[in-house]
Amino acid sequence: MATVFSGVQPSGDFHLGNYLGAFRNWVAAQGDNEAYFCVVDLHALTLDIDPEELRRRTIDSAVILLAVGLDPEVVTLFVQSHVAEHTRLAWLLECTATMGELSRMTQYKEKAARGEMVRVGLFTYPALMAADILLYQVDEVPVGDDQRQHLELTRDVAIRFNNRYGPTFTVPRATVPKLGARVMDLQHPERKMSKSVDSPMGTVGILDDPGEVQRKVMRAVTDAETTVAYDPERKPGVSNLLELLAVATGVGVEQAAGTYRGYGQLKRDVADAVVALLSPIRERALELGSDLGEVERILSVGAARAREAAAPTYAAAARAIGLTSP
Ligand code: TYM
Question: What backbone torsions phi and psi does residue 24 show, to the nearest 5 degrees?
Answer without folding.
Answer: -60, -40
